Amino acid sequence: MNAELDLSLDRIARAAETIDPLFLNTPQYVDGQLCERLGGRRVLVKVETLNPLRSFKGRGADFHVGELARRSPGATVVCGSGGGNFAQAIAWAARRHGLRAEVFMPAGMSPVKLRRAASLGATVHAVSHDVKAAARAYAAGAADRVFVEDGRDAAVAEGAGTIGVELLRDGAGAEPFGAVVLPLGDGALITGVARWVKAHAPGVRVLGAASVNAPALYRSWRTGEVTEAVPENVFAAGINITRPTAEAVARTRALVDDIVLVTDEELLSAMRLAAETLGVLPEPAGAAGLAAVAAHGGALQGDDTDADANGTVATVITGANADPQLLFGVS
Q1: d(C-alpha 237, C-alpha 69), whole Å
Q2: Segment 115-153, tens digit of pLDDT
Q3: Four-point Cα dihedral 236, 238, 243, 245, nearest 10
Q4: Is the pTM for the entire model greater than 0.85?
Q5: 1 domain residue, yes or no
Q6: Does residue 205 sit in the same domain as residue 74?
Q7: Domain span at residue 120?
Q8: Quick check: is 115 in a domain?
Q9: Is position 195 within any domain?
Q10: In angstroms, rounded to a whole number, what is the distance separating the alpha carbons of residues 84 and 110?
């Protein structure tokens, strides 16, 4: 099947009607202070941090786990989450739909994310090796365990695609922005959004913002081959992946127009910019799209102009589960 078409427009539309309203219809607006700080560039920003998970991940997790609960009541949902936000989302969704969750996270993970996953009802396994491999092996050990993988499972991307539905809704089917720039980690967010946007506003460019220190999916997108790249650090934990899934590579190749790399310094600057202008303090990965807009400007739309009309760029603040030690120097 064509990689683009294994994400269903009908299912994205259904997700927009069935996902818990806690995660839907998040604020999106043009902020004058932000635009001024970006040299007058018009930026539509969508904030995905004002929910119990503090990230967009609840959309895809709720859609996927809800379907799983209907098919396999009594199942245990198992996942590996290098960044931690997906683990929290699976924990939340499993509890909502009456399932158990067991999540595997790095032993060196931010204590904030470990505690939050446990508080949401999941059994947390902190491991020192590949979390996805550990989760996959554990799930294979019993018939009632179901391994869920962010970046592979279509329903997760389709749930995230509801962000695209909302971004375009105000434009009533028109193209209210010329480009949308999204953090690039495992690829679920950008491919889900791109699937909807490309079908309903084909002139909009879809661009990914990847960490220069975690370029696995970026390199895979360029070559068309699944490429492994061990992250150099964990600063942008939410978009730090070592090896993308084959599905993510195929979908990004079909749907994403370009990918730019952002540095840790640019991520930190974007975090501060969001705090100072929007009153929102994102985690590093959550600010990746804004970092790309600040660092790359008009080049994101394929030229160096700052034209109005479709010179507007959209981006999403995707998460705010930052480690307090990183932000405030406290544990």
Answers
A1: 29
A2: 889 999 999 999 998 999 999 999 999 999 999 999 999
A3: -150
A4: yes
A5: no
A6: no
A7: 57-151
A8: yes
A9: yes
A10: 8
